[in-house]
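User: Earlier you gave me the apo prediction for this protein. Now I'd like the version with zinc ion bound, so I can compare the two side by side. Same sequence as before, with the ligand SMILES added.
Assistant: Got it. Here's the input I'm using:
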Amino acid sequence: MHELSVALGIVDAALEKVKDGRVVEVALAVGELTHINGEQLALAFEVASRGTPLEGARLKVRRIEARLRCVRCGWQGESFTCGRCGSAMEVLQGEEILLERLRVVEEDAPRE
Ligand SMILES: [Zn+2]
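And here is the structure of the complex with zinc ion:
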């Protein structure tokens, strides 16, 4: 399952940043070309974060629109072939998965 490896990567990246406390919210930006399913990702994140300071954190996902550019004439659009000259397009954005923000609370703070 694609989402599980993504979730494990998110947990790893977050754990590197968090030294103390508990993570209550994880904000992500996910490119639409990754074909990540938001619900599946939330489920996978629940599994991947179990037993870590991220357990129980809320996952917020922002979508990044796809943007592609023709390798020959520079035309930009969302298709995989150029709308002007028919050449192949390269991806400018939309394939990325970014960890944008973490909200961390002290370990002994009450749960929300
Ligand atoms: Zn073109």
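For your comparison, keep in mind: The pocket of zinc ion is lined by residues 70, 72-73, 75, 82, 84-85, 87 (CB under 6 Å).
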